[in-house]
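Lab notebook page, bench 4
Experiment: in silico fold of construct C2
Operator: M.H.
Input chain length: 531 residues
Purpose: comparison with the prior construct
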Amino acid sequence: MRRTLGLATILALSAGCGEQRAELWDAPASGENVAVHALRGSAAVVDVVGERVIFATPESTDSLAFAQVPIEHGHATSAATRDGERLVVLSRGDVPRRRADDQGPSLSVIDSRTSPPKTSRYELADPLSGLELDPTSEYAVVYPSKSDASFVQNPNELVLVKMNEPPSEDNPVPATIRSFGGRPEGFTFTPELSLPGGKRRLLVVRTDRDVALIDLDAPGKPEITVKLTTGAVAPKPASIAVTDGELDDENDARLAVRMEQDHNVILLDLLPTPGDKVQTSPHSFLPVPNIVDVGGTPADIAFGQTDGGLRLLAAVPSKSALVLVEPSTGVTTEIALGAPFEKISIVTEIVGETANGSDVALLWSTSSPVIAFVALGATVGTPYKSVERLQLEQPVASVLDVPAPNSDLKLLAAADGRSFVVLNLIARTASPLLSSTYGTQAMASRDGERLWMFSEQSSSLALVNLANLHPQNLELNYPVGRTFDLERKDGGHALLALHTAGTMGISLFDAQKPSLDESTEYLGILLGDYQ
Protein backbone atom coordinates (compact mmCIF):
# COMPACT_ATOMS: atom_id res chain seq x y z
CA MET A 1 0.00 0.00 0.00
CA ARG A 2 1.34 3.45 -0.90
CA ARG A 3 2.24 5.43 2.23
CA THR A 4 2.36 9.22 2.48
CA LEU A 5 4.42 10.74 5.28
CA GLY A 6 3.96 14.41 6.10
CA LEU A 7 6.32 16.73 7.93
CA ALA A 8 5.48 15.57 11.45
CA THR A 9 6.18 11.93 10.63
CA ILE A 10 9.42 12.76 8.82
CA LEU A 11 10.67 14.70 11.81
CA ALA A 12 9.81 11.86 14.15
CA LEU A 13 11.74 9.45 11.96
CA SER A 14 14.65 11.89 11.92
CA ALA A 15 14.96 12.16 15.70
CA GLY A 16 12.82 15.27 16.14
CA CYS A 17 13.19 19.02 15.91
CA GLY A 18 15.50 21.32 17.78
CA GLU A 19 14.11 22.98 20.86
CA GLN A 20 14.51 26.51 19.49
CA ARG A 21 13.05 27.52 16.17
CA ALA A 22 15.60 29.26 13.94
CA GLU A 23 14.69 32.39 12.01
CA LEU A 24 15.14 30.61 8.70
CA TRP A 25 11.94 28.59 9.28
CA ASP A 26 9.96 31.81 8.93
CA ALA A 27 11.39 32.28 5.41
CA PRO A 28 9.36 30.90 2.48
CA ALA A 29 10.51 27.43 1.40
CA SER A 30 10.67 26.76 -2.31
CA GLY A 31 12.21 24.17 -4.60
CA GLU A 32 13.45 27.07 -6.75
CA ASN A 33 16.14 27.80 -4.14
CA VAL A 34 17.70 24.35 -4.05
CA ALA A 35 20.30 22.32 -5.91
CA VAL A 36 20.10 18.53 -5.94
CA HIS A 37 22.92 16.02 -6.38
CA ALA A 38 23.13 12.24 -6.56
CA LEU A 39 25.74 10.62 -4.33
CA ARG A 40 26.45 6.92 -4.14
CA GLY A 41 24.23 6.23 -1.12
CA SER A 42 22.17 9.36 -0.67
CA ALA A 43 20.44 12.25 -2.39
CA ALA A 44 21.85 15.64 -1.38
CA VAL A 45 19.47 18.61 -1.40
CA VAL A 46 21.28 21.94 -1.04
CA ASP A 47 18.81 24.29 0.67
CA VAL A 48 20.21 27.71 -0.20
CA VAL A 49 17.75 29.69 1.99
CA GLY A 50 18.21 27.31 4.92
CA GLU A 51 22.02 27.27 4.46
CA ARG A 52 22.21 23.52 4.83
CA VAL A 53 22.44 20.27 2.91
CA ILE A 54 19.71 17.69 3.53
CA PHE A 55 20.88 14.11 2.99
CA ALA A 56 18.16 11.56 2.24
CA THR A 57 19.57 8.06 2.69
CA PRO A 58 17.52 4.92 1.86
CA GLU A 59 17.77 2.33 4.63
CA SER A 60 15.26 -0.21 3.29
CA THR A 61 12.55 -0.51 0.65
CA ASP A 62 10.20 1.75 2.61
CA SER A 63 12.40 3.88 4.86
CA LEU A 64 14.48 7.02 4.34
CA ALA A 65 16.82 8.49 6.94
CA PHE A 66 17.26 12.27 6.92
CA ALA A 67 20.23 14.29 8.17
CA GLN A 68 21.30 17.87 7.63
CA VAL A 69 24.71 19.53 7.49
CA PRO A 70 25.06 23.33 7.78
CA ILE A 71 26.87 25.21 5.03
CA GLU A 72 28.45 28.65 5.01
CA HIS A 73 26.70 31.87 4.06
CA GLY A 74 26.42 32.98 0.44
CA HIS A 75 26.06 29.72 -1.49
CA ALA A 76 27.66 30.17 -4.94
CA THR A 77 27.52 26.69 -6.44
CA SER A 78 27.84 23.01 -5.58
CA ALA A 79 28.77 19.72 -7.27
CA ALA A 80 29.17 16.04 -6.45
CA THR A 81 32.51 14.33 -7.02
CA ARG A 82 32.40 11.79 -9.84
CA ASP A 83 32.94 8.86 -7.44
CA GLY A 84 29.69 9.86 -5.73
CA GLU A 85 31.23 9.99 -2.26
CA ARG A 86 31.54 13.72 -1.53
CA LEU A 87 29.59 16.91 -2.05
CA VAL A 88 31.55 20.09 -2.73
CA VAL A 89 29.94 23.43 -1.81
CA LEU A 90 31.45 26.79 -2.74
CA SER A 91 30.34 29.71 -0.52
CA ARG A 92 31.05 33.42 -0.95
CA GLY A 93 30.51 34.17 2.74
CA ASP A 94 29.13 37.51 3.90
CA VAL A 95 29.66 40.08 1.15
CA PRO A 96 30.69 42.67 2.09
CA ARG A 97 32.31 41.65 5.37
CA ARG A 98 31.70 44.45 7.87
CA ARG A 99 32.05 42.71 11.24
CA ALA A 100 34.68 40.46 12.74
CA ASP A 101 32.24 37.56 12.99
CA ASP A 102 31.08 37.80 9.37
CA GLN A 103 31.89 34.65 7.48
CA GLY A 104 34.60 34.62 4.84
CA PRO A 105 34.53 32.71 1.56
CA SER A 106 35.22 28.97 1.67
CA LEU A 107 35.03 25.63 -0.05
CA SER A 108 33.35 22.86 1.96
CA VAL A 109 33.89 19.18 1.09
CA ILE A 110 31.22 17.03 2.76
CA ASP A 111 32.01 13.31 2.99
CA SER A 112 28.78 11.32 2.75
CA ARG A 113 30.51 8.05 3.74
CA THR A 114 30.62 9.04 7.42
CA SER A 115 27.67 9.21 9.80
CA PRO A 116 26.97 12.02 10.31
CA PRO A 117 28.59 13.41 7.14
CA LYS A 118 31.93 15.08 7.91
CA THR A 119 32.82 18.52 6.53
CA SER A 120 36.29 19.77 5.61
CA ARG A 121 36.32 23.55 5.20
CA TYR A 122 38.98 25.28 3.09
CA GLU A 123 39.18 29.03 3.62
CA LEU A 124 39.54 31.26 0.55
CA ALA A 125 40.92 34.78 0.28
CA ASP A 126 38.26 36.21 -2.04
CA PRO A 127 34.60 35.43 -2.77
CA LEU A 128 34.61 33.51 -6.07
CA SER A 129 31.81 31.68 -7.86
CA GLY A 130 33.48 29.38 -10.40
CA LEU A 131 34.04 25.70 -9.53
CA GLU A 132 35.55 22.83 -11.52
CA LEU A 133 36.10 19.31 -10.15
CA ASP A 134 38.77 16.83 -11.14
CA PRO A 135 37.23 13.66 -12.70
CA THR A 136 39.41 11.59 -10.33
CA SER A 137 37.84 13.45 -7.35
CA GLU A 138 41.28 14.58 -6.17
CA TYR A 139 41.32 18.32 -6.94
CA ALA A 140 38.92 21.24 -7.09
CA VAL A 141 39.58 24.50 -8.90
CA VAL A 142 37.94 27.72 -7.71
CA TYR A 143 38.05 30.68 -10.06
CA PRO A 144 36.28 34.00 -10.76
CA SER A 145 33.14 33.77 -12.86
CA LYS A 146 31.97 36.63 -15.04
CA SER A 147 29.18 37.30 -12.53
CA ASP A 148 31.63 38.02 -9.69
CA ALA A 149 31.82 41.73 -8.90
CA SER A 150 34.50 42.43 -6.30
CA PHE A 151 35.84 46.00 -6.08
CA VAL A 152 39.15 44.82 -7.57
CA GLN A 153 39.35 41.41 -9.22
CA ASN A 154 42.10 39.38 -10.86
CA PRO A 155 40.22 37.34 -13.49
CA ASN A 156 43.21 35.05 -13.97
CA GLU A 157 43.46 34.01 -10.33
CA LEU A 158 42.88 30.32 -9.59
CA VAL A 159 42.71 28.47 -6.29
CA LEU A 160 43.64 24.80 -6.37
CA VAL A 161 42.27 22.65 -3.52
CA LYS A 162 43.61 19.17 -2.80
CA MET A 163 40.41 17.54 -1.57
CA ASN A 164 42.19 14.37 -0.37
CA GLU A 165 44.32 16.41 2.05
CA PRO A 166 43.23 18.47 5.08
CA PRO A 167 43.32 22.27 5.03
CA SER A 168 46.79 23.67 5.76
CA GLU A 169 49.10 26.56 4.93
CA ASP A 170 49.89 24.76 1.66
CA ASN A 171 46.31 23.79 0.86
CA PRO A 172 44.57 25.55 -0.90
CA VAL A 173 47.24 26.70 -3.38
CA PRO A 174 46.66 30.07 -5.07
CA ALA A 175 47.92 30.56 -8.61
CA THR A 176 47.70 33.26 -11.25
CA ILE A 177 48.12 32.39 -14.89
CA ARG A 178 49.93 34.82 -17.14
CA SER A 179 47.51 36.51 -19.48
CA PHE A 180 47.65 38.07 -22.91
CA GLY A 181 44.26 39.67 -22.33
CA GLY A 182 42.18 36.53 -21.78
CA ARG A 183 40.53 34.91 -18.77
CA PRO A 184 39.87 31.24 -17.85
CA GLU A 185 36.91 29.65 -19.65
CA GLY A 186 37.57 25.91 -19.41
CA PHE A 187 39.67 23.32 -17.57
CA THR A 188 41.03 19.91 -18.55
CA PHE A 189 42.58 17.57 -15.97
CA THR A 190 44.91 15.21 -17.81
CA PRO A 191 45.52 11.60 -16.84
CA GLU A 192 49.00 10.77 -15.58
CA LEU A 193 51.46 11.48 -18.40
CA SER A 194 55.00 10.18 -18.94
CA LEU A 195 56.84 13.48 -19.28
CA PRO A 196 60.51 14.45 -19.23
CA GLY A 197 61.44 14.43 -15.56
CA GLY A 198 58.86 11.82 -14.51
CA LYS A 199 55.18 11.01 -14.51
CA ARG A 200 52.73 13.74 -13.54
CA ARG A 201 49.28 15.13 -14.17
CA LEU A 202 48.60 18.53 -15.67
CA LEU A 203 45.77 21.02 -15.40
CA VAL A 204 45.17 22.68 -18.78
CA VAL A 205 43.50 26.07 -18.43
CA ARG A 206 41.77 27.30 -21.56
CA THR A 207 41.19 31.05 -21.91
CA ASP A 208 39.50 32.88 -24.76
CA ARG A 209 42.85 33.20 -26.57
CA ASP A 210 45.55 30.97 -25.07
CA VAL A 211 46.18 27.93 -22.87
CA ALA A 212 48.15 27.50 -19.65
CA LEU A 213 49.63 24.33 -18.15
CA ILE A 214 49.81 23.80 -14.38
CA ASP A 215 51.82 20.92 -12.93
CA LEU A 216 49.45 19.28 -10.42
CA ASP A 217 52.36 17.57 -8.68
CA ALA A 218 53.96 20.98 -8.07
CA PRO A 219 51.16 23.56 -8.31
CA GLY A 220 53.34 26.18 -6.63
CA LYS A 221 55.57 26.34 -9.72
CA PRO A 222 54.79 29.03 -12.30
CA GLU A 223 52.40 27.89 -14.98
CA ILE A 224 53.41 27.52 -18.63
CA THR A 225 51.30 29.79 -20.82
CA VAL A 226 51.18 29.16 -24.56
CA LYS A 227 50.21 32.15 -26.66
CA LEU A 228 48.31 30.71 -29.62
CA THR A 229 48.58 33.66 -31.99
CA THR A 230 50.57 36.80 -32.62
CA GLY A 231 47.97 38.37 -34.89
CA ALA A 232 45.50 41.14 -34.13
CA VAL A 233 42.55 38.71 -34.03
CA ALA A 234 43.01 35.91 -31.55
CA PRO A 235 41.29 32.59 -32.36
CA LYS A 236 39.40 31.15 -29.41
CA PRO A 237 40.41 27.72 -28.04
CA ALA A 238 37.33 25.49 -28.05
CA SER A 239 38.48 22.12 -26.66
CA ILE A 240 41.53 20.08 -25.66
CA ALA A 241 42.59 16.52 -26.51
CA VAL A 242 45.36 14.71 -24.61
CA THR A 243 47.54 11.69 -25.32
CA ASP A 244 50.40 10.04 -23.44
CA GLY A 245 51.75 8.62 -26.68
CA GLU A 246 53.67 5.37 -26.47
CA LEU A 247 53.96 3.88 -22.97
CA ASP A 248 57.76 3.51 -23.09
CA ASP A 249 58.48 6.99 -24.46
CA GLU A 250 58.54 9.95 -22.08
CA ASN A 251 59.01 12.45 -24.89
CA ASP A 252 55.86 11.92 -26.98
CA ALA A 253 53.05 13.12 -24.72
CA ARG A 254 51.16 15.93 -26.42
CA LEU A 255 48.06 18.10 -26.39
CA ALA A 256 45.87 19.24 -29.25
CA VAL A 257 43.90 22.49 -29.18
CA ARG A 258 40.81 22.91 -31.35
CA MET A 259 40.02 26.51 -32.26
CA GLU A 260 36.61 28.08 -32.88
CA GLN A 261 35.88 29.05 -36.49
CA ASP A 262 39.39 28.13 -37.56
CA HIS A 263 40.76 25.43 -39.85
CA ASN A 264 43.91 25.06 -37.77
CA VAL A 265 44.48 22.60 -34.94
CA ILE A 266 47.46 23.37 -32.71
CA LEU A 267 49.53 20.41 -31.52
CA LEU A 268 51.65 20.96 -28.41
CA ASP A 269 54.48 18.43 -28.07
CA LEU A 270 55.64 18.24 -24.44
CA LEU A 271 59.39 17.92 -24.99
CA PRO A 272 62.45 18.16 -22.70
CA THR A 273 63.43 21.71 -21.78
CA PRO A 274 66.11 22.88 -24.23
CA GLY A 275 69.63 23.09 -22.85
CA ASP A 276 69.77 26.87 -23.16
CA LYS A 277 66.68 27.18 -20.93
CA VAL A 278 67.40 24.52 -18.31
CA GLN A 279 68.92 27.02 -15.87
CA THR A 280 66.02 29.48 -16.11
CA SER A 281 62.99 27.22 -16.46
CA PRO A 282 61.46 25.58 -13.33
CA HIS A 283 60.05 22.79 -15.53
CA SER A 284 61.70 19.73 -17.05
CA PHE A 285 59.45 20.00 -20.13
CA LEU A 286 58.14 22.74 -22.39
CA PRO A 287 55.40 22.67 -25.04
CA VAL A 288 56.48 23.04 -28.66
CA PRO A 289 53.61 24.10 -30.95
CA ASN A 290 52.88 22.74 -34.41
CA ILE A 291 50.01 24.20 -36.46
CA VAL A 292 48.07 21.88 -38.79
CA ASP A 293 45.36 22.90 -41.28
CA VAL A 294 42.70 20.16 -41.39
CA GLY A 295 40.87 21.66 -44.37
CA GLY A 296 37.80 22.90 -42.53
CA THR A 297 36.61 23.94 -39.08
CA PRO A 298 36.73 20.82 -36.86
CA ALA A 299 33.75 20.21 -34.59
CA ASP A 300 35.58 17.74 -32.31
CA ILE A 301 39.01 16.18 -31.89
CA ALA A 302 40.45 13.09 -30.21
CA PHE A 303 43.60 10.97 -30.31
CA GLY A 304 43.45 7.38 -31.56
CA GLN A 305 45.68 4.52 -32.61
CA THR A 306 45.64 3.42 -36.27
CA ASP A 307 47.52 0.71 -38.11
CA GLY A 308 49.99 3.46 -38.99
CA GLY A 309 50.50 4.65 -35.42
CA LEU A 310 49.03 7.44 -33.29
CA ARG A 311 46.84 9.99 -35.06
CA LEU A 312 44.84 13.06 -34.11
CA LEU A 313 41.25 12.64 -35.32
CA ALA A 314 39.33 15.75 -36.41
CA ALA A 315 35.64 15.61 -37.35
CA VAL A 316 35.14 18.21 -40.12
CA PRO A 317 31.40 18.56 -40.91
CA SER A 318 31.91 20.84 -43.94
CA LYS A 319 33.86 18.06 -45.63
CA SER A 320 31.71 15.18 -44.28
CA ALA A 321 35.04 13.65 -43.37
CA LEU A 322 37.22 12.47 -40.53
CA VAL A 323 40.69 13.96 -40.94
CA LEU A 324 43.62 12.01 -39.49
CA VAL A 325 46.74 13.98 -38.57
CA GLU A 326 50.13 12.35 -38.08
CA PRO A 327 51.36 14.30 -35.01
CA SER A 328 55.07 14.33 -35.77
CA THR A 329 54.86 15.46 -39.39
CA GLY A 330 51.44 17.14 -39.62
CA VAL A 331 50.56 15.03 -42.68
CA THR A 332 46.77 14.63 -43.02
CA THR A 333 44.60 11.83 -44.42
CA GLU A 334 40.85 12.10 -45.01
CA ILE A 335 38.23 9.41 -44.45
CA ALA A 336 34.99 10.15 -46.29
CA LEU A 337 32.01 9.62 -43.97
CA GLY A 338 29.12 10.35 -46.33
CA ALA A 339 27.48 12.69 -43.81
CA PRO A 340 28.53 15.51 -41.47
CA PHE A 341 29.52 14.46 -37.94
CA GLU A 342 30.33 16.69 -34.96
CA LYS A 343 31.22 14.36 -32.10
CA ILE A 344 33.91 11.69 -31.61
CA SER A 345 34.17 9.05 -28.89
CA ILE A 346 36.87 6.36 -28.76
CA VAL A 347 35.02 3.14 -27.80
CA THR A 348 37.88 0.62 -28.06
CA GLU A 349 37.72 -0.37 -24.39
CA ILE A 350 34.13 -1.46 -24.98
CA VAL A 351 34.18 -3.06 -28.44
CA GLY A 352 37.80 -4.28 -28.45
CA GLU A 353 40.71 -3.48 -30.71
CA THR A 354 40.77 -4.14 -34.45
CA ALA A 355 42.82 -7.03 -35.84
CA ASN A 356 45.75 -4.61 -36.09
CA GLY A 357 45.46 -3.54 -32.45
CA SER A 358 44.02 -0.15 -33.36
CA ASP A 359 41.10 1.91 -32.06
CA VAL A 360 37.44 2.12 -33.00
CA ALA A 361 35.77 5.53 -33.01
CA LEU A 362 32.06 6.28 -32.67
CA LEU A 363 30.86 9.43 -34.42
CA TRP A 364 27.46 11.08 -34.16
CA SER A 365 25.77 14.17 -35.48
CA THR A 366 23.41 16.86 -34.22
CA SER A 367 22.37 17.69 -37.79
CA SER A 368 22.18 14.35 -39.59
CA PRO A 369 20.23 11.22 -38.43
CA VAL A 370 23.13 8.82 -38.70
CA ILE A 371 25.95 7.45 -36.55
CA ALA A 372 29.18 5.88 -37.75
CA PHE A 373 31.73 3.37 -36.49
CA VAL A 374 35.22 3.94 -37.85
CA ALA A 375 37.72 1.09 -37.48
CA LEU A 376 40.96 3.05 -37.41
CA GLY A 377 43.05 -0.07 -37.92
CA ALA A 378 41.80 -0.27 -41.49
CA THR A 379 42.12 3.37 -42.46
CA VAL A 380 45.45 3.40 -44.24
CA GLY A 381 44.90 2.66 -47.92
CA THR A 382 41.28 1.45 -47.50
CA PRO A 383 39.41 4.34 -45.90
CA TYR A 384 35.99 3.61 -47.43
CA LYS A 385 35.86 0.07 -46.09
CA SER A 386 36.58 1.27 -42.54
CA VAL A 387 33.28 3.14 -42.04
CA GLU A 388 30.10 1.41 -40.86
CA ARG A 389 27.05 3.69 -40.79
CA LEU A 390 23.79 3.18 -38.94
CA GLN A 391 20.69 5.17 -39.91
CA LEU A 392 18.51 6.72 -37.17
CA GLU A 393 15.14 8.45 -37.22
CA GLN A 394 16.51 11.76 -35.89
CA PRO A 395 19.85 13.47 -35.23
CA VAL A 396 21.47 12.94 -31.83
CA ALA A 397 21.33 15.79 -29.29
CA SER A 398 23.23 14.07 -26.47
CA VAL A 399 24.78 10.73 -25.51
CA LEU A 400 24.46 9.09 -22.09
CA ASP A 401 27.04 6.50 -21.01
CA VAL A 402 25.86 3.37 -19.20
CA PRO A 403 28.06 1.88 -16.44
CA ALA A 404 29.26 -1.73 -16.40
CA PRO A 405 28.09 -4.45 -16.85
CA ASN A 406 26.20 -2.74 -19.69
CA SER A 407 28.91 -0.31 -20.77
CA ASP A 408 28.48 -1.65 -24.31
CA LEU A 409 25.25 0.37 -24.40
CA LYS A 410 24.80 4.10 -24.92
CA LEU A 411 21.57 6.06 -24.74
CA LEU A 412 21.17 8.54 -27.60
CA ALA A 413 18.70 11.38 -26.99
CA ALA A 414 17.13 13.24 -29.92
CA ALA A 415 16.58 16.98 -29.99
CA ASP A 416 12.79 16.60 -29.91
CA GLY A 417 12.96 15.81 -26.18
CA ARG A 418 10.95 12.59 -26.41
CA SER A 419 12.82 10.17 -28.70
CA PHE A 420 15.66 7.94 -27.52
CA VAL A 421 17.77 5.13 -28.96
CA VAL A 422 19.60 2.44 -27.01
CA LEU A 423 22.74 1.84 -29.05
CA ASN A 424 24.49 -1.52 -28.66
CA LEU A 425 28.14 -0.93 -29.58
CA ILE A 426 28.90 -4.63 -29.94
CA ALA A 427 25.88 -5.75 -31.97
CA ARG A 428 25.67 -2.39 -33.83
CA THR A 429 21.93 -2.19 -33.18
CA ALA A 430 19.78 0.86 -32.37
CA SER A 431 16.63 0.16 -30.33
CA PRO A 432 14.14 3.05 -30.05
CA LEU A 433 12.42 4.22 -26.86
CA LEU A 434 9.64 6.78 -27.30
CA SER A 435 8.03 9.02 -24.68
CA SER A 436 4.62 10.62 -25.00
CA THR A 437 5.83 13.74 -23.18
CA TYR A 438 8.22 16.39 -24.42
CA GLY A 439 11.10 17.31 -22.13
CA THR A 440 11.66 13.70 -21.06
CA GLN A 441 15.00 13.03 -19.37
CA ALA A 442 16.85 9.79 -18.72
CA MET A 443 19.26 8.55 -16.04
CA ALA A 444 21.28 5.33 -15.86
CA SER A 445 21.67 3.52 -12.53
CA ARG A 446 25.17 3.29 -11.07
CA ASP A 447 25.06 -0.52 -11.26
CA GLY A 448 24.35 -0.31 -15.01
CA GLU A 449 21.19 -2.41 -14.85
CA ARG A 450 18.43 0.17 -15.38
CA LEU A 451 17.34 3.37 -17.08
CA TRP A 452 14.88 5.77 -15.45
CA MET A 453 12.89 8.14 -17.67
CA PHE A 454 10.90 11.10 -16.33
CA SER A 455 9.66 14.59 -17.12
CA GLU A 456 8.77 17.63 -15.05
CA GLN A 457 5.88 18.11 -17.48
CA SER A 458 4.10 15.01 -16.14
CA SER A 459 3.87 12.77 -13.09
CA SER A 460 4.88 9.69 -15.10
CA LEU A 461 7.99 7.65 -14.33
CA ALA A 462 9.31 4.68 -16.30
CA LEU A 463 11.84 1.97 -15.47
CA VAL A 464 13.61 0.42 -18.47
CA ASN A 465 15.32 -2.89 -17.75
CA LEU A 466 18.53 -2.91 -19.80
CA ALA A 467 18.52 -6.72 -20.01
CA ASN A 468 15.45 -6.70 -22.29
CA LEU A 469 14.56 -2.98 -22.74
CA HIS A 470 11.14 -3.62 -21.21
CA PRO A 471 9.60 -0.36 -19.87
CA GLN A 472 7.54 -0.41 -16.68
CA ASN A 473 5.43 2.74 -16.37
CA LEU A 474 4.41 4.22 -13.02
CA GLU A 475 2.01 7.09 -12.40
CA LEU A 476 2.99 9.19 -9.37
CA ASN A 477 1.01 11.86 -7.56
CA TYR A 478 3.43 14.69 -8.45
CA PRO A 479 5.71 15.68 -11.36
CA VAL A 480 9.26 14.31 -11.17
CA GLY A 481 12.17 16.76 -11.35
CA ARG A 482 15.03 14.33 -10.73
CA THR A 483 15.60 10.65 -10.01
CA PHE A 484 18.27 9.04 -7.83
CA ASP A 485 19.08 5.32 -8.06
CA LEU A 486 21.01 4.69 -4.83
CA GLU A 487 22.59 1.86 -2.90
CA ARG A 488 20.53 1.03 0.20
CA LYS A 489 22.07 0.31 3.55
CA ASP A 490 20.53 -3.18 3.47
CA GLY A 491 22.38 -4.00 0.23
CA GLY A 492 19.62 -3.41 -2.32
CA HIS A 493 18.90 -0.40 -4.52
CA ALA A 494 16.36 2.36 -4.00
CA LEU A 495 14.80 4.79 -6.44
CA LEU A 496 14.15 8.28 -5.09
CA ALA A 497 11.88 10.36 -7.34
CA LEU A 498 12.30 13.98 -6.30
CA HIS A 499 9.32 16.33 -6.60
CA THR A 500 10.93 19.77 -6.84
CA ALA A 501 7.82 21.96 -6.74
CA GLY A 502 6.92 23.89 -3.58
CA THR A 503 8.43 22.53 -0.37
CA MET A 504 9.62 19.40 -2.22
CA GLY A 505 8.84 15.74 -1.75
CA ILE A 506 10.38 12.33 -2.39
CA SER A 507 8.71 9.13 -3.57
CA LEU A 508 10.66 6.04 -2.48
CA PHE A 509 10.63 2.75 -4.43
CA ASP A 510 12.51 -0.52 -4.54
CA ALA A 511 14.61 0.20 -7.65
CA GLN A 512 14.72 -3.42 -8.78
CA LYS A 513 10.99 -4.13 -8.26
CA PRO A 514 9.19 -0.78 -8.15
CA SER A 515 5.55 -0.92 -7.12
CA LEU A 516 3.07 1.82 -6.37
CA ASP A 517 1.56 -0.42 -3.70
CA GLU A 518 4.89 -0.57 -1.87
CA SER A 519 6.03 3.04 -2.37
CA THR A 520 6.39 5.72 0.30
CA GLU A 521 5.92 9.46 -0.18
CA TYR A 522 7.77 11.99 1.97
CA LEU A 523 6.32 15.50 1.71
CA GLY A 524 7.49 18.91 2.96
CA ILE A 525 11.21 18.08 2.81
CA LEU A 526 12.31 21.72 3.02
CA LEU A 527 10.20 22.34 6.12
CA GLY A 528 12.08 19.86 8.30
CA ASP A 529 14.74 20.71 10.91
CA TYR A 530 16.61 17.40 10.83
CA GLN A 531 18.90 16.53 13.70
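Observations: The chain has two helices and 43 strands. The mean pLDDT is 87.
Next step: discuss at group meeting.
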